[in-house]
Amino acid sequence: MRNKTDSMWERWGRSDAYYGVISSERFHTRNLPKTKEAFLQTGEHHIAGVLEAMEQRFGALERRSALDFGCGVGRLLLPLSRVFDRVDGVDVSPSMLKEAGVNLSERGINNVELLGSDDRLTSIHDHTYDLVHAHIVFQHIPKRRGYALIDTLLSHVGPKGCFYIYVPIKRMASPIKIAAHSIKHHVPFAYIVFNLLDRKRPLTPTMQMNHYDFGTLLLLFKKHGFETVVSRTDIQNVRTGSSVSVGIFSRRP
Question: What is the model's pTM?
Fold first, then answer.
């Protein structure tokens, strides 16, 4: 049975894929003729920053294989494909994967494989990677599923491989806003009412924002033998409150 959050993500993939990845007005489908390159450039900057930070802290990273979990339209697959010999992109949305395939094909990139996702990550089999990467993905996945997926992803980091994840860990908002958020995302069809109040189309997909426990994440790293964990915090202010997120990276000893 398809999970509700997976179905919503597929609806973003069909209706407004780039905005689903980065929720900026610039990246609505209607604006892409002017802004698509700027969208893709954000991926270049992100991957360059992640690799630089990892290698400054842990030394040179083998660049044979990488996995991008929640690859969406391929924003991060493009730069990864130029610095790794082989890259796998995994996403639960067929429409997102189709768009990623278009972006890869337009640039003649042929060392990336696009794979569908499930909760056991069966599509990547027993592969291990020099880099396992998941950026702005897990906030859209309920925590119980998310912890299990992170556990599985950590098991696919190869010897001396690195793992990077970016997740929200705390929400700062009034009790009323927190309650409204819970109703919108967890009460059946309530999102339609909220869309109407926000003057959106009634069936505009929702986008969950789930917050993870930092201590639980650290225990998962420890379980898989990661001894040194580096974290960087980030605070984002939005209309519904503030969110504290953390980028965590580590290397298998």
Answer: 0.89
